[in-house]
Specification:
globular
Length: about 500
């Protein structure tokens, strides 16, 4: 019997929620669910807290989803991370943001709070003074002839901040430990009390390179809470935006990975193709990144009349140029020497941490939110989800290459289905005037973006949680670099391309 069948049959509903139930569980059921995660009978989707309440979204082997809620009467809850390591960092974030303590968590150090906030536990609902924190202690490493290399949080390139502490023996990495949280924005607190349309702007800025994915996931969560269904035309335009975002990012990543292997020619060519996608997005939707276009209930604007031809021209350019670049990548021995068998992620490690997107699919995980749990219009479209088992940098490049072809295929199908008046604008005809609770998952270029929210009696955002796919990918990067040389870290890091901003909240 799938895990959730048993829980749904024995637990009370914590609140009316759509499209997945939220169940009130006791401590024993919470701990049993943690054991199911560790045993591979379920997958952790998200873990977050609010005052006196901790939530865990999970999916079972039948791809059914639910949110489990545990009341923390004494401000404590049994650690999931004690049994399931992927939950450790979310538990540390819960302690920083809400003040709830995960009993038995193997790593109780602060995570997002660096001791520089003006308040303590900002999502706790209490006015608390800022915490006094001891200097951050990195995990010890024992062995002969080891030395440490600190990198960041300020980096050589114009990228987001994050600290990487390498322990190496010569050039070989024995351990990498990350410290993130430098771009914590308090985004969930900023959304509270706002109308869904105001809050949507914050969701779209959680990670700017995934603005479409976040805005779509947030809009779908609001629409679920309201019981509202958008029109097929709206879903189709949203999907066009999402696939254009995926195309632009994958093309940029393929070139950047090659550039980190000192093969700048590939980056030069893929940058041209990426620019074509961005210009087509500007022509079609009025913004290169398509920011603030997806709103709860519809679209802020539709596609311009010249949009379909501009997008098709960009796709034609990619289809004529990209195969030669793929051949160049595959036949350049010096490049393959850098990417093949570098940054290996085993199938077992991918199963344990359940990373989505390119990272998961390059290590044997058949996961894609467009298929499971699925959402319109992808349930009516023909596309493949590429999966490989090699688990190295080369495999992650090839997943991106194959996904480029699939995104082109999807966009062409969507454009063929659009009615003649592509510029129609649709906004929800109703305003939320009462409480509701909803959740959604949308496949971004990094993987699945999860959003849960609750609307209060006035239809404003009472609570919201945004979960970036990077939460389950960053820890895997630490394992992927072990045994590689320090000089291969940029290559491994870019092949993951985790988000700092989306993770730091």
């Amino acid at each position: 019997m799938p895990l959730l069948d048993d829980l749904i049959g024995t637990c009370e509903m914590a609140a009316p929620a759509r499209p997945w139930p939220r169940l009130a569980v006791d401590r024993s059921q919470w701990q049993r669910s943690a054991g199911d995660l560790a045993a591979g009978r379920a997958t952790l989707v998200a873990l977050w807290g609010e005052p006196q309440l901790v939530h865990m979204a999970i999916s079972d082997s039948a791809h059914r989803m639910a949110v489990l809620s545990l009341t923390c009467h004494d401000g404590r809850f049994p650690s999931v991370g004690r049994l399931y390591p992927a939950a450790i960092r979310p538990e540390r974030a819960i302690q920083d943001l809400v003040g709830l303590v995960a009993e038995g968590c193997p790593d109780p150090r602060p995570w997002l709070d660096h001791g520089r906030w003006s308040v303590g536990h900002p999502l706790s609902g209490r006015s608390e003074p800022a915490q006094r924190l001891e200097p951050y202690t990195f995990l010890p490493v024992e062995g002969a002839n080891l030395h440490q290399i600190p990198v960041g949080p300020v980096h050589a390139g114009i990228i987001e901040p994050g600290h990487f502490r390498f322990t190496a023996c010569g050039e070989t990495v024995a351990r990498l430990e990350e410290r993130l949280g430098y771009v914590h924005k308090g985004i969930e607190r900023l959304m509270m009390g706002r109308s869904p349309w105001d809050a949507a702007r914050f969701a779209g800025r959680a990670s700017g390179d995934s603005t479409v994915a976040y805005a779509w996931a947030f809009a779908r969560a609001v629409e679920a809470a309201m019981g509202y269904q958008v029109k097929d035309h709206t879903s189709a335009l949203r999907a066009v935006m999402a696939e254009l975002e995926r195309l632009a990012n994958h093309l940029g990543d393929i070139g950047a990975i090659c550039n980190d292997a000192s093969f700048a020619l590939m980056q030069a060519h893929t940058a041209v193709l990426r620019e074509r996608v961005l210009r087509a997005s500007q022509e079609a939707f009025g913004h290169r990144l398509m920011m603030d276009l997806i709103v709860p209930g519809g679209l802020a604007r539709g596609m311009a009349s010249s949009g379909p031809s501009a997008v098709r021209a960009a796709l034609d350019c990619i289809e004529s140029s990209f195969p030669a670049l793929v051949e160049l990548y595959d036949n350049t021995t010096s490049l393959q020497d850098r990417t093949a068998e570098t940054g290996f992620v085993s199938i077992e490690l991918a199963r344990l941490f359940a990373p989505g997107g390119v990272v998961g699919r390059a290590s044997g995980r058949h996961v894609d939110a467009r298929r499971q749990p699925g959402y319109p219009p992808y349930d009516t479209l023909d596309f493949d989800v590429p999966v490989r088992v090699d688990g190295d940098v080369n495999s992650r490049v090839w997943i991106r290459i194959l996904e480029v072809t699939q995104s082109i295929r999807l966009i062409r199908q969507l454009l063929d289905r659009l009615p003649g008046r592509s510029g129609d604008t649709e906004i929800a005809p109703l305003a939320p005037s009462g409480p509701g609770e909803g959740a959604a998952m949308v496949e971004g270029f990094r993987g699945d973006v999860f959003v849960w929210l609750r609307l209060d009696g006035d239809g404003r955002v009472a609570r919201c949680h945004l979960r970036d796919p990077s939460w389950f990918q960053w820890p895997v990067l630490e394992a992927a670099i072990e045994g590689n040389i320090v000089a291969d870290f940029p290559l491994c890091n870019k092949s993951f391309n985790c988000s700092y901003s989306g993770h730091d909240l």
